[in-house]
Amino acid sequence: MGHADAFAAALTASGLRHFTRVDHRTATGSTNEDAQHLLGEPSASGLVIVADEQTAGKGRRGRRWVAPPRSGLLFTAILPLPLAAADAWAVPFWTGLCVATALRQWKIQASLQWPNDLLVDGRKICGILCVSRIVGEQASVGCGVGLNVHRPETRPDIDEIVPPPIFVDDVTVAGDDARAELLVLILREFESQLASLHEPQAIAREWEDAAGLPGARYRLRFDDESTLEGEAQRLSSTGALIVRADGKEHTIDLAAEVRALR
Q: Minimal CA–CA distance to 84: which of 226, 199, 232, 240?
């Protein structure tokens, strides 16, 4: 069975009600960019764009996402209904919770790191980046997920990453259809949690609990090379990270030019 057939067959057999269509691409620049062009179109609701390879994949703030062909589960799922634009900030946290729950079904315990990473033993296994189109007070949203599944045999560019990433098959057995199987598990979580998207503050509280806030230690590096190290306290009402350092609280906005160091 080809890769496209495997994804289509997995979705057909899944019993999903909202995410029933998959657009598989052998290679594309970015599934998020592909989805961005479709957001707001009624025909795109619930569409899942999956790629074996992204030639221009990006993480947060445009950082390059390295994923050799067929090594990762790379997809963007367009939510079936628009959200209140004021609540769209919560979608990446919601997505992270759903992915973490799906991974637990494979006996993989992933921790959440602000704002958009999942870690196993302090090493990145998944990154999340969502895209949106806002019209008036409503937002159409695509949930972009990059999950490391199969470790490539020889890739110097991955070996140079510090700390090194971790892959699903470093932790458990991942067969040829692992990407399709994991996609279905994640989409099932999306479907079961759709209603909670209308309660962004509840999502934030659940994310805090799952991420071990308050108390988690964070080392943050800003794009001007300055750093901040302290104890995370909570998320703000819009998803900013509140960190206590040097005897006072600092608010790190989601739009800040910053990344968490591991």
A: 199
